[in-house]
Task: structure prediction
Amino acid sequence: MTGSTRHSSLIGRVYGATWGRLFSVLYDRGLKETEDAGLREKRRELLAGAWGRVLEIGAGTGLNLVHYPAEVESLTLAEPDPHMAKRLRGRLASSSRSAEVVQAPAERMPFPSDAFDTVVATLVLCTVPDPATAVAEARRVLRPGGQLLFLEHVRAEDSESARWQDRLEKPWRFLADGCHCNRDTVATLRASGLALANVERGEVPKAPPIVRPLVVGRAVEEEQGAKG
Result:
């Protein structure tokens, strides 16, 4: 590596760390209007179906925390970003919820296979570096009969909107700390070996058009399904 390359790499890491810290501070504020306009209710409806031992991947600042049923057996919150994890721990400390925060990426989770009854992914599969591996890991840690609950903005179904997502993907990813606006998450789920029990399409309220298409649903690890 040349001196100029090392210098550029250092600048990139410093910038990334600074923007990541600022992004975590602004995240809740940036989503507030969207949450108030209906996204919070969509979270609540989805997470009402969580049961047993629950793992949330990419838990962020903990916006889902208040929506988990009191009856869940245990709650584990996985978040790889140190700035997000710090805010997540702060929100957890000020709540009455008992949960464990684990700083780990969705693609490499430090849990044994078949460890959870429910895995939750909300607005995270757009950002993980390798969504196929993240879903495969979710499937690995789900016990037979377990479920993946998901709420994600996705690639648009109409071709014109999808083309705009493709055109604007790079600048959006830069501004939104790694978020890809054009990922076909439903296709990734279908290819994972999980069975899609239901998928509802809609819109993220008060969101920019390129991140407005929404899917909410449930995928299951079938009792007799062989994990490959």
Remarks:
- The helical segments are 3-47, 82-93, 131-141, 159-175, 185-190.
- The domain at 3-220 is CATH 3.40.50.150 (Rossmann fold).
- The chain has one domain: 3-220.
- Residues 1-16 have pLDDT under 50 and may be disordered.
